[in-house]
Write the structure tokens for this entry.
Amino acid sequence: MIKQKFKNFLRYRYFITTVIGKEFKVRYAQSYLGMAWLVLEPLFLVMTLSYIFTVIGRTSGGGHPFPLFFFSGLLPWNYFIRCFNSGTNSFIFDADLIKKIYYPREISIFKHIGVGFIDYLFANVSFIVLLIVFNYSINWYYLYIPVLLLLETVFLYCITLLTASLNVYVRDVGIIVNTLSGIWFWFTPIIFHYPFSGRSKILYYINPMAGIISNFRTIILENQAPIFVQLYSIVGYTIVFALIGWVAFHKLEKEFVDVL
């Protein structure tokens, strides 16, 4: 089954790149600043919250400049949560296309993940500038970043495959995911730092994104190798959602056209 799916994706590779490119262009077609917002939006957010939490709230950046501390967690988080939200609605967004032609339905999810990944790459421009300003240099441990992104993307795909499939039948799923996103943010070490020890240690196992965010900081800010034990939870979640999402998708996919 997996081998056949992989062959299907190879067959539809040009279709995948076409729909991703089209989605990316359409998203910014009506904007005067266009893709510049990918750089400006997170930068404005970092500047605003840096003022609030360092000047007013006196929040520490774990020994690092707060803009870098916040930005290093915000970028991988934004990539995940934006793709999760849009991907959950992917089959609904592509309802007209699904009714007209056949293609592996998972491509609708890959389209949103692909566009989100491009957004993530562009958003890194302002972060790189900040790294230069604060005199942080690139180290060999940056080679682990693609591994973290791959792990994050696989988890993202697996959980979104489940929520997107359910959302076709129960539209409340999309609302729940959107609401959960806001709550999830505050339980993830993006603005605040919690150590991998004591009572806070359990949060790394409950929250699959905690280890991803923390290890981005470990590599970029601490110049150290990832702490792999912090990634056990996301690996476990990925396996669980892969199994549940795969079964749910293949059972529900057959009626997509009728329900949509």
